[in-house]
Known about the structure:
The chain is mainly β.
Amino acid sequence: MPRPSRLDRLAPILVAVIVSTLSVAVPARAAEQLDHGYDDMSFSAATVTTQSLTSDTVQSKLWVHDGRWWAVLFSNGDGKHHIYRLDMPTQAWTDTGIALDDRDGAKADVLVDGDALHVVFSQTTAQIRYYRLDYSAATTKYTLASGYPKTIETRTAAEVSAGSPVGSGPGTMVRDGTGRLWIAWTSGNEVRFATSLTGATWSSPARGVPGADGLDPTDVAAVTTAGSDGIGIFWSDQATDDAFYFSRHLDSAAEGTWEARETALASMAGGYTATEEISLKTSPSGGVLAAVKTDRDIVVPTIPGDPASLVLERADDGTWTSHVVTSIASGQVGHPLLVIDGEADEAHVFLIVPPGGGAINRRTASLGTLDFGASALGMPLIEDADYAKIKNPTSAKAPTDTATGIVVEAEDKPTARYLHGCYGSACPDAIPPIASFSFSPTSPVIGQAVAFTDTSVNGPTSWEWDFQNDGTVDSIEQNPTFAGYPTLGTKVIKLTVTNGAGSGTTTRSLTMADLTGPTLAIPNPFFTVRSTMAGKTTPVKIAWSAGDPSGLASFRVYQRTGATGALKYVTTLKGTARSLVRTLAFKTYYEFRIDAYDTKGNRSIAYSGLVRPLRYQQTSTAINYTGRWRTATTSSASVGSLRYSGQTGASVTFTTWARSIGWVSKTGPTSGRARVYLDGGLTPVATIDLRTSTAKWRRVVFNKTWAAAGTHTIRIVVVGTARHPRVDLDAFIITR
């Protein structure tokens, strides 16, 4: 499907209109769909663009009320944080015109309490601000209560007297069973809190949470309800104990009285256990859950089975159980965000993959078991080739349900864009499906059953099969089996697929045979090693396996260019052929069909499925370098430059969603060897010798193809070959 130009994609979508003291809602156009998720709006007017507007994961910037999703987001119009409302069918955010904090570096946490809305903004160099708003179902808008915001002091009286600087870590808010509001944050290397009965006046910042001092300046804290009769504060301690802790306060107790500190996760052997990446939630039953990230990937030697991210579960007796979400072997992740679906009884953890930014992936487990299954990086919720640093997910504090789905907001800092993903049956399908299918056997005999497999893309939700193209729907299953055709000849099969955005139709021909045709299969197309990539195209090998007892006579090759383009004849090859190299353009969909003929004239047909090659240049922010790498400028490189290193142990890492990954490099007399690792493995899958007698440019020196698309990581490590250690990276090329 054609996509708008990058200039269009980065154009501001929302404009805030403020007339006198009236707040005017500004409608938004329908959101543009990304490869996964939706493109929202720009926050380029923010002067503190070095900060992350959707962090931290301890905070919740989205909420659900009156059957709608809402968010506190930055508005370019007046440089303030505004309340936005999501239109679920179009997935577009509408600025309601309700302006809040004017500090673009302030970070919001939202607590919804019936029609009352509480918003607290914290900043590392300023006081905390608290806003109280009220909702009107008649106008579907929030109104700021008179006399707000309120300023909350972050310093103790002694610190105020001494002139200590103001500021705090990210603050979070909760209301206890008595109606008292609590705000918790870190400041002065300790956990602090303030309380209020009405929100109009707040207590001075208090200490006294057991053992919550001596912390690292980057440590964070979060507060949530804990059971039906209390609240609790969860915090990280990276400075002293390298652990995560929790302490509970009973509603019946004095404000400064806390239960003994509980160890949610103790330091593991070798350290690097605690981080400031925490997402704290309360389950519908009142249980406390915390999604956390570790830094166990730093431990030397790395232990593949160590947890990279976990969900920590508190029992009523104050003991904690850990549940692994991802392990070190699966790859690095960042900022786990926990969202609970109370109706489906599920816990969803959204992760940054890789941790420096790239995509927001999802892993899901039942709340009853919190068993996330075999360690994996999950399925992408927000991802796009144009946005290489997607990170910092945020969502709702309270459990969601099937009627609302789950909405996760994130950002791409290099382009200053808000992006979001929607998960669940409440979310629309924004792109019509593209129909595609395969069948087996490809040349059935009379009366032989034929199994059809749907390979359509863009999420179809219903299927209509017409096995004889006579206008009659024969099956509505996704992958049906037809009992068999009673006569010889060519049969035309029609498939129509539909989702909420529309439908797609395709037809394919099946030729009956009185003898079994050749066996024929086409694995995923892949990049050919030692081939040369051009500027906008790359050689891709289409290979197949085939066999026939009577012998193979020939293969006819057809190619489809574009997801809905027509199949066109390419060439006829001898029966001994098993592959063909085609030059394909980046960012274009292709599909190949092979017709195999045996010596008796019987034919079998196989399809490759849709394939789309993409290129990531060595300058892409999706590629991470360690060690000393230099840039060489040369017209022989694919875009005029490449990166190289001769330092032993220097490495380059690239994580993406793909079914094939190729490494493009220069080879030559000064080139040396490099080891290639895949998907977090500790053993290299290959050692590549880049040395050749003469210089060769834009060479595909390594390729890996998987059976299906998924999140994969390639890491290249310089060996440091004596006298010719150089290893180059021109680009990574992938297929999806």
